[in-house]
């Protein structure tokens, strides 16, 4: 399987960097082909500019500034996000990537009266997200309603292949997690990505 990992964290020595590495290790051990987009390392500009917004609905013109990212999306069969959850959602850098790369005519066709948008990334058969959260799982799920998970998995899934599978792996209460709990989560992530499908 061809897997695209979209990684978002500003610190190279972070726990999320360790998660990224374990995702890549698991994919390699499972015989999968992987490509990495490291948003901070590449200096990705998450801001949708005035010009970008004016060109947003213009086919092909809207693709030019992010052609490399769209090519990677069109290449992959699995899309894997690795990022920390901040204020119940993805970091601004990653949200900006969604805003700028998942474009009309490229990722989806615009809706028609009485019909929702339709997906154009039919090559993507799996969307996965690996994240860390400060909140306990019950607060995230029962009180907040899992907003980040809903954005990354439910929001993107209709734009991908019919029957696209989703995977969510999260380490809750990250700030107080023991070294043993963190290591166990790293092992779990690597094992899961070894047998991704």
Describe this entry's structure for a reader.
The chain has 197 residues and is of the alpha/beta class. Helices cover 36% and strands 19% of the residues. It is built from 7 helices and 7 strands. The strands form 2 sheets. It has a 5-stranded parallel beta sheet, sandwiched between helices. Strands 4-5 form a two-stranded antiparallel ribbon. The longest helix has 16 residues, at 179-194. The protein is globular, with a radius of gyration of 17 Å. The relative contact order is 0.19.
Mean pLDDT: 95
Helix-and-strand structural type:
alpha/beta
The main sheet comes to:
5 strands, parallel
Approximate shape: globular
Q: What is the ordering of alpha helices and beta strands?
A: EHEHHEHEEEHHEH
If strands are numbered along the chain, what order do they take across the biggest sheet?
2-1-3-6-7
Query: DSSP helix count?
Result: 7
The radius of gyration is 17 Å
Q: How many individual β-strands?
A: 7
Portion in beta strands: 15-25%
**How much helix is in the residues?**
25-40%
Give the N-terminus to C-terminus distance in angstroms: 9 Å
Uncertain segments: none
């Amino acid at each position: 399987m061809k897997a695209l990992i979209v990684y978002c964290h500003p610190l190279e020595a972070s726990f999320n960097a360790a998660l990224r590495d374990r995702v890549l290790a698991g994919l390699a051990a499972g015989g999968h082909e992987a490509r990495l987009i490291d948003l901070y390392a590449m200096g990705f500009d998450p801001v949708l500019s005035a010009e970008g917004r004016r060109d947003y609905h213009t086919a092909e013109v809207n693709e030019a500034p992010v052609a490399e990212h769209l090519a990677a999306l069109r290449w992959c069969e699995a899309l894997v996000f690795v990022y920390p959850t901040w204020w119940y959602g993805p970091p601004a850098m990653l949200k900006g990537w969604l805003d700028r790369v998942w474009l009309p005519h490229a990722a989806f066709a615009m809706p028609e009266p009485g019909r929702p948008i339709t997906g154009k990334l039919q090559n993507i058969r799996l969307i996965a997200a690996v994240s860390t959260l400060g909140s306990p799982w019950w607060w995230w799920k029962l009180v907040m309603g899992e907003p980040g998970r809903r954005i990354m998995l439910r929001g993107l899934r209709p734009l991908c292949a019919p029957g696209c599978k989703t995977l969510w792996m999260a380490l809750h209460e990250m700030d107080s997690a023991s070294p043993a709990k963190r290591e166990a989560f790293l092992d779990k992530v690597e094992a899961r990505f070894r047998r991704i499908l």
